[in-house]
Amino acid sequence: MADQSKTFAIMFVAALLGSYAGGSLSGFAVSGNAVGQVAAAPTPTPTPTPTAAGTIALAGLEDNDPVLGSDDAPVTIIEFSDFQCPFCGRFYDQTELQLKQDYVDTGKLRIIYRDFPLSFHPEAQPAAEAAECANEQGKFWEFHDKIFENQATMSAAAYKQWASDLGMNVDQFTSCVETGKYRSEVQADLDAGVAAGVSGTPTVFVGKTGGQGVKIVGAQPYDTFKGAIESFLAA
């Protein structure tokens, strides 16, 4: 019966996402453009519709990345994101904050953040490394919020100022950033995303904690994520 419930939940999520298939893909694809070059707007494409056969094991996507919420939460979101991506900013502002209030703060959901800096966003890689340095001092999510709330002013000077504003040891933070201490960690996230079929941001995997999940691509409406989460909570 439990397996049947899980299968039903996955099929429900697939149907829910399929209802958005006529919409556009709200994200950027990985590009071969040089860093700093502005990419052409992507051609609108349907959102992929996951099926039971197309699910992915969430445990295989987890690493030692920042987690928002309780480890005991029954549903997990694994988010591959780019700090400079405008669609990721939209996801943060219009969806993630509400998910935090409705599901993370109530113990139903945990969110794992993984880096997926796109090559045509010049501040994506530096910001990802800076956020990892903030994580070293227990300030990842505060720094994460600072970046998304100030995307227009991203720079090395801004990262240092935000570290100070958040009460971090600025000398430690600066040394961490300037030595590229977490460059390989950011690359590991990027490689993991590519292996999981991520090609643009934001890409989110949602499912039962430790179980199977489905992929949601782009800054989809809050109700898309709500429906997926609720179906997995009911499974």
Give structural notes.
The strands form 2 sheets. Strands 2-8-7-4-5-3 form a 6-stranded mixed sheet. Strands 1-6 form a two-stranded antiparallel ribbon. The chain starts with a helix and ends with a helix. It has helices spanning 2-18, 86-104, 124-136, 140-149, 156-165, 170-178, 183-195, 222-234, and strands at 28-29, 56-57, 67-68, 75-81, 109-115, 200-201, 203-208, 212-217. The protein is 44% helix and 14% strand. Helix 1 packs antiparallel against helix 8 (222-234) and helix 3 packs antiparallel against helix 4. It has one domain (2-234): Glutaredoxin, CATH 3.40.30. The longest helix is centred in the middle third of the chain and has 19 residues, at 86-104. It is globular.
List the helices and strands and how they pair.
Layout: H1 2-18, E1 28-29, E2 56-57, E3 67-68, E4 75-81, H2 86-104, E5 109-115, H3 124-136, H4 140-149, H5 156-165, H6 170-178, H7 183-195, E6 200-201, E7 203-208, E8 212-217, H8 222-234
Parallel strand pairs: 4-5
Antiparallel strand pairs: 1-6, 2-8, 3-5, 4-7, 7-8
Helix pairs in contact: 1-8, 3-4
